[in-house]
């Protein structure tokens, strides 16, 4: 994006994992805003892969491998390819979105089912290929924990579903002191939160702090907005996935400041 002034004077905390936040931080700065990196999630390997290895030994009799994130791909596929010289011919692949499909392509998986509108579990589950799954064996590749919607829906449709969890998410922050200090100095207008887990970490750590009621939480999905809205906080939802839509969402805050 070319340099501009769409976000002139806006101070925005970005809570994405450090290795995934740089592009958005740069885009905010390019539009005249100030980006405050405040990662609420860090991705790390599991301490033990014994259970994961047991799960992927089932792939030769599995119909679908569904990948929830690019992290799931990057932590899982090297181990899968180490175990299988050639991927099982029966195995079909699905991904939550284009970025995850691109990550699979880097490991030689080219024919991947993805949603075409919103990139989330609901949209993937709505695809025709995910309807008639009675008797299918389905592996869901993800991090430890996470939403159960995908598994529960596919089980309800008659599939045998199991998880292959290849990484874990941790909160690298001990408190919200940095955000509090920024707000005290008049240098915090919004916080970008793009995962439900990060939102839970933020709200728990902030513990109804005064500053939380004065800033806007910018999210990229209605699901992430539910909890802060229940608490009466100000929430803005981007109109689409991706950084461009998030910048447009932030630009509305500038107009309200004027």
User: Biggest sheet, strands in spatial order?
Assistant: 3-8-7-4-5-6
Distance separating the two termini: 23 Å
Overall mean pLDDT stands at 93
Strand content: 15-25%
Q: Write down how many β-strands occur, each being a DSSP E stretch of 2 or more residues.
A: 11
How would you sum up the global shape? elongated
SSE arrangement, N to C: EHEEHEHEHEHEHEHEHEHEH
What count of structural domains? 2
CATH class of the largest domain: Alpha Beta
- Describe the main β-sheet briefly: 6 strands, mixed
Enumerate how many helices there are, as a single number.
Answer: 10
Question: Helix amount, in percent?
Answer: 25-40%
- CATH fold descriptor of the largest domain: Rossmann fold
Rg, rounded, reads 20 Å
Describe this structure in words.
- It is elongated, with a radius of gyration of 20 Å.
- It contains 10 helices and 11 strands.
- It has helices at 18-30, 50-56, 70-83, 98-105, 121-125, 149-156, 177-184, 196-206, 222-230, 243-257, and strands at 11-14, 34-37, 42-45, 64-67, 92-95, 112-113, 137-143, 160-170, 190-193, 216-219, 234-237.
- Strand 10 (216-219), helix 9 and strand 11 form a beta-alpha-beta unit.
- The protein is α/β, with parallel strands linked by helices.
- It folds into 2 domains: 11-15 and 34-41 and 172-248, 3-Layer(aba) Sandwich (Rossmann fold); 45-169, 3-Layer(aba) Sandwich (Rossmann fold).
- The strands form 2 sheets. Strands 3-8-7-4-5-6 form a 6-stranded mixed β-sheet. It has a 5-stranded parallel β-sheet with strand order 2-1-9-10-11, with helices on both faces.
């Amino acid at each position: 994006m070319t340099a501009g002034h769409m976000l002139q004077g806006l101070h925005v905390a970005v809570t994405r994992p450090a290795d995934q936040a740089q592009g958005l931080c740069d885009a905010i700065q390019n539009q005249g805003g100030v980006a405050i990196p405040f990662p609420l999630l860090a991705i790390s390997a599991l301490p033990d892969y014994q259970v994961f290895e047991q799960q992927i030994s089932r792939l030769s009799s599995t119909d679908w491998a569904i990948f929830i994130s690019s992290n799931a791909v990057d932590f899982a596929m090297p181990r899968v390819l180490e175990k299988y010289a050639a991927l099982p011919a029966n195995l079909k692949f699905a991904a939550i979105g284009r970025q995850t499909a691109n990550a699979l392509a880097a490991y030689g998986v080219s024919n991947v089912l993805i949603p075409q509108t919103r990139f989330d579990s609901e949209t993937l589950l709505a695809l025709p290929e995910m309807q008639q799954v009675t008797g299918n064996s389905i592996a869901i590749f993800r991090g430890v924990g996470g939403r159960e919607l995908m598994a529960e829906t596919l089980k309800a449709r008659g599939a045998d579903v199991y998880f292959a969890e290849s990484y874990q998410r941790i909160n690298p922050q001990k408190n919200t002191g940095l955000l509090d200090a920024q707000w005290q100095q008049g240098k915090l207008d919004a916080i970008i939160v793009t995962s439900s887990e990060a939102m839970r970490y933020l709200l728990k750590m902030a513990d109804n702090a005064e500053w939380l009621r004065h800033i806007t939480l910018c999210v990229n999905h209605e699901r992430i907005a539910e909890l802060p809205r229940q608490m009466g906080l100000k929430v803005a939802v981007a109109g689409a996935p991706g950084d461009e839509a998030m910048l447009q969402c932030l630009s509305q805050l500038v107009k309200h400041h004027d």
